[in-house]
Amino acid sequence: MEQECAFPDVTLADQTTLEQQRALNAHPGNDESSNHGKDTFVILQPRSTRYQLSRKHIVIVIVIVLLILIAAVLAAIFITRAMDSTSCHQCDSTRTSQAQGLVTDNLESISSKTGDHRVDPGKIRPTSPGASDGYGYPWSNIRLPRSLIPSFYEIQLKVDLTKFIFEGSVNISLKVNTRTKYIVFHRSVIDIDDSSLLVRSRYSPPRRIVQQFQVPDRQFHVIEVDQELEMSTTYTLTIGHFSGKLITNLRGLYKSSYTTMDGQTKYLASSQLQATDARRVFPCFDEPDMKARFKVSIIHQSEYTALANMPMVSLTVVDNGWTRRDFATTPVMSTYLLAFVVAEFKSRNHTFSNGYKLKIWARPEAYGQTEHALDFGAKSYDFFTDYFAMADVVPKSDHVAVPDFSSGAMENWGLVIYRETALLFDMHVSSSQNKFMVTLIVAHEIAHTWFGNMVTMRWWDDLWLNEGFASLLMYIVMDHVYPGWNVFAIQVVDDMFPVMVKDALTTSHPVSTNISDPEDIPQHFDSISYNKGMAVLRMLMGFAGIENFRDALRLYVSRYKYSNADMAQLWSTFTESFNNTYDVALIMNTWTLQMGYPMVRVKDEGGHFRLTQTRFLLDQSLDAEDQDTTPFGYKWFIPFTYVTQDDRSDVKLAWLNLKDAVIPKPSSGWLLGNHEYVGFYRVMYEKEMWALLAEQLVGDHTVFPEANRAGLVGDAFIFARADLLDYDIALNLTRYLKKEQSYIPWQAFLHSIEFLRGMISNKAAYVQLQHYLRELVAPVYHLSRASDKGPLPERYLRRVILSMACDVGVEAAVEYAKTMFYHWMNHDNRPSSDLSMLIYSVGIREGGATEWDYVWNKTRVTSVATARDMMLESLVHTQKPWLLWRYINWLFDPDKIRPQNVRVVIGYFSKTPLARMVALQFFMSRWDDLVHTFAYDPFLLRDVIQEVTMYVNTDYHLDQLQAMFEKNTPRGATKAVDTALALIKANIGWMKANYNKITDWLSKNKP
């Protein structure tokens, strides 16, 4: 095999070659040999009959010409070999090159030499029959052709944080799989100097570029060369100059800023390349299975520090206040994992015994908030190194908190980037919930080192392999480091229950789905990929065994490290690791290849219980029409676990193998299914069994695990919502909560009751519901104490109970919160960190513009991002509509609301009845403005649609929204629109079927 060599930036010796290539590109008909030939024939052709040459003279001239041609060919070969040999020997050293000169000197003329040849893919035809490579025209497919595979990138970037521009050069080593004259790669937004392109191999002259053009709807740049690229040969594509702008759009390489305590504005550059935005920074083959090694150099103003995926290997002072940093070459990885940060940040560091370095970076004023992330991060790397029996191959990991970031965090290999609230924790100001979320997100990103970075899905169809596994692994490491947190029970109520609502709609999608259009990729970064993916994997771990599951993961990562794998390879590896005890693909494909999940009915048939399965849908009338749309007919392999009253310690397992199952009936008492709620299914009991379970809850609820107490409440309310169970059964289950001292069931109840409150918040029955909830929570509130002390589950419970007590009007709780608010406002007495949110909210709700403005102004000066977010959320609790309108219109003002916080603030508006009404009116009146302003962020539009329409339940609003979406639905929001409209229709049906029933029950159960 030919030795792989990274060709360097164009060397001084190559300048002639590059100029020749430019000349060839400018005059396609003239290459070096043809020029010689033309000059020769001018000499030989007689101008008139008066000039006659002898045969001897002609022979001499021909010989001389042939010798000149041979010498020229030999010289070209010799120069090319020497040039490539120099390139290979210098591939890891710093070089002065023509491309570097472009980057260093041409800041004033970024676009001066840029071509913009844009074409419709259907209107371009190859110049030879062999151009298609078996794919049709190579730019016609939505995916890149596989005729060329990149193996190495050498990238040089210059980042200017004064002019807010960047520019660079790149050399890409390409291996030829199929003979082709076409090089197709990705580019988007960036400008490319077409004359700076060069295509060459080690032992042949540069290829002449016949034509090049863009295919905008594919984000392709196409180069056609004069001769086919040879099989099994490595070529280098040099792009000597490209450039782009640093703007605050949170995509690609973008600009961010923050204000220091003394009022200075500081700027930085950060990156976000997932899923398809590496092409916005440099020309590349931007698909996850086109892995390569990357060598990066960054030139920047000297007052900044630059970070990349690998450690820095050299630092050079260039001139005029510029510095160049060269970084080590990465392992083989996908383009979307590349990352860059240029900022004036400070780090807190930890070095492991093997030399591995972990650093947490933040603004200097936030340095004190990095301690928890460093401590937990170090423990996480130690845990996962042992768990996978494999260390991270990148020798360092930088975790950076930036002021503006579109998502929570991004797992770039060796350079993980977070929004500040996801990485920073201030023990004096941040709440226990903030600490939990920071821990959760850090664990998730570190888990990606092995699952996502080292082993990557082949294509975005299997995004869930990356995200589902990382989501499960984050709970595994948290449970190891903080065993008292009861994290898997929290996972049930905070992650499983919400996604089970979404997955009960016909607009859901399978965990593994077909993505044919890159525009659809962002829509699949959703709770189905993350939370359902995690849940079905936890179910697999449940029936296979924790150690067996770990061993299978070790085998999988070891087998596919530095490469890509798909779901079939995952299941095959698991089956092998389990010694064929389970046919994992047979079982798990029923969970990953069809949307939805089963409801298991437990039916008493005298001497035994019969277990039957049907697909659960919130709208049961839609079930029949979808039964034949999957190869499994909406049946599943279900590991049904259960305990009985007469043997509570013996957890039994029965399999429903795409059909019914029969289990023994105990002599008396209840049966409780889905033990610890590990299975991704719901259990429906007969009325008599519900009564026995409710009786046990009232008598001694601690007999059931916390997750099952939560599951009983959650299942009963969702069945009632689907009109499969009477609401009186569900509501009667809640009576025991007066004695419940665990956060988990209370959180499940709040999730369940929140739907009721949202649906009837503008109806007369809302007051009755508030009265009932007040009587339910008051006894537990009086047992609670306002404090930041105690273990995390206790602090979680205290926060939930006090918040609910204030929300439903428990007088003592409201008065306490008001008093604390005014102590803070008038005397600057900082409130309890765990109770800050509810204290801010009550102060805003009970106050007016003075209180609102006070809290708003505090958001402008605090240096703690988590505190800022709590204050921003509290502002929606005002009862003054004009304040809400002012607030929501600030979404269009980035000086007031950072772009990263737009969807967060919209989410806050869904939390109170008045704010929801304002948000819906705003949404409908300014939808076109929202689409125009935030089209760059499909995640934002998706979340806005979901939050604003969550509790819409009238035909009038349905008609209005349908008409609005018909006129204007961005491509990246189609699934969100479909889901929202389906949910609204279900809400309308629910109101017609259940509102009067709820009213009757509340009337009969007045306090």
Automatic annotation (TrEMBL):
InterPro entries for this protein: Aminopeptidase_N-like_N (IPR045357), Aminopeptidase_N-like_N_sf (IPR042097), ERAP1-like_C_dom (IPR024571), M1_APN-typ (IPR034016), Peptidase_M1 (IPR001930), Peptidase_M1_aminopeptidases (IPR050344), Peptidase_M1_dom (IPR014782), Peptidase_M4/M1_CTD_sf (IPR027268)
User: Could you name the Gene Ontology cellular component terms for this entry?
Assistant: cytoplasm; extracellular space; plasma membrane
The active site of this protein is located at: E445
* Regions crossing the membrane: 57-79
**Cofactor comment in the record?**
Binds 1 zinc ion per subunit.
Q: Does the keyword Nucleotide-binding apply?
A: no
Membrane topology type: Single-pass type II membrane protein
Residue ranges occupied by any Aminopeptidase N-like N-terminal domain in the UniProt entry: 150-337
Q: Which domain of life is it from?
A: Eukaryota
Q: Tell me the ranges covered by the ERAP1-like C-terminal domain, including all copies.
A: 670-985
GO biological process per UniProt? peptide catabolic process; proteolysis
User: Could you tell me one molecular function GO term of this UniProt entry?
Assistant: metalloaminopeptidase activity
Cofactor(s) for this UniProt protein? Zn(2+)
- Region of interest called Disordered, as start-end residue ranges on this chain: 111-130
Task: Report the locations given in the UniProt record.
Answer: Cell membrane; Membrane
Instruction: Please list the residue ranges annotated as the Peptidase M1 membrane alanine aminopeptidase domain.
Output: 373-591
Where on this chain does Zn(2+) bind?
H444, H448, E467
Please give the coiled-coil regions recorded for this protein.
none
UniProt-annotated site: Transition state stabilizer, residues = Y530
Biased-composition ranges, Basic and acidic residues, are 114-123
Matching Gene3D superfamilies, A to Z? Answer: 1.25.50.20, 2.60.40.1910, Neutral Protease Domain 2, tricorn interacting facor f3 domain
The family note in this entry says:
Belongs to the peptidase M1 family.
| Name of the protein in question | Aminopeptidase
Q: Which gene encodes it?
A: APN
